[in-house]
């Protein structure tokens, strides 16, 4: 079995292809399409650990829970995180099984419900910033905030969304199981939505928290702890750009970590969009200087691995 390990982070928005395309059936179809691109990496001999976002899906669960308030018990955020790990993991698990079978590739695919420890005194709990759920207009967002006690904020010019705490990932609780499965050659879906946020209480027991961990930062932690040779951050663009959406826009191909950090200091990667992805890659390459990182969109994964496109970052 190949010793080459790739952690591939796919965004939760990748499952929602546009307005009116957010049903479970639509999301499953989008996952199936993404699986074709991920299978391209597996076909090249990589053992893939697939991570995924869950912001829109957690938002849908909490919205339904709010609508049904008083009729059925409300769903805490950590349970919504767990729900989405199971549901989205199932979409990718089934999609990869079917795609690999079509290609004559014999690899077992496992989706693992994953907990990630955070610090209960993380400052993020005092400043909720992580957008979840669907975009909406300001009036609707403010009314839902009044009705349901939400914190809401404008999301990078795309509308208003609910925001909740996004603490730093400290420890992947199931790391040993992930390592064992990877060493046996399993294709793994793990750390979904950044992991279910848990803390250790005074007795050493795990307790769930109302939060969503950034998927890219948790994926970076996983890639570092696995010593992955490749860390892929999938996004909606083929390459990263500086001076994005201006006449000076410039697409980035092969760059060093130092160049990437310099661009970040110049403010090219906003916190609400590309910023966390760049920070995730910075942390990975700082700890794994022999590895390489890649940012591209799912349809271009095969071409990017061949060096034909994508933004490639090295230490």
Task: Walk me through what this model shows.
This protein has 9 helices and 17 strands. It has helices at residues 24-43, 55-67, 77-102, 138-148, 175-183, 215-226, 257-265, 275-287, 301-305, and strands at residues 5-10, 47-52, 109-111, 115-117, 130-136, 151-154, 160-164, 171-172, 187-189, 196-200, 206-208, 230-234, 240-242, 250-252, 254-256, 292-296, 311-314. An 8-stranded mixed β-sheet has the order 3-9-2-1-12-16-17-15, sandwiched between helices. Helix 1 (24-43) links the parallel strand 1 (5-10) and strand 2. Helix 1 packs across helix 3.
Task: Give me the secondary-structure topology.
Elements: E1 5-10, H1 24-43, E2 47-52, H2 55-67, H3 77-102, E3 109-111, E4 115-117, E5 130-136, H4 138-148, E6 151-154, E7 160-164, E8 171-172, H5 175-183, E9 187-189, E10 196-200, E11 206-208, H6 215-226, E12 230-234, E13 240-242, E14 250-252, E15 254-256, H7 257-265, H8 275-287, E16 292-296, H9 301-305, E17 311-314
Parallel strand pairs: 1-2, 1-12, 2-9, 3-9, 4-10, 12-16, 15-17
Antiparallel strand pairs: 4-8, 5-7, 6-7, 10-11, 13-14, 16-17
How many helices? The count is 9
Gyration radius, rounded? 19 Å
Number of strands: 17
Q: Estimate the global geometry from the Cα principal axes.
A: globular
Classify the beta-strand content into a percent band. Answer: 15-25%
Unreliable sequence segments: none
In N-to-C order, the SSE pattern is EHEHHEEEHEEEHEEEHEEEEHHEHE
- Sequence of strands across the biggest β-sheet: 3-9-2-1-12-16-17-15
* SSE-based structural type: alpha/beta
Amount of helix: 25-40%
Q: How is the main sheet built?
A: 8 strands, mixed
| Beginning-to-end CA distance, first to last residue | 27 Å
The average pLDDT value, as a whole number, equals 92
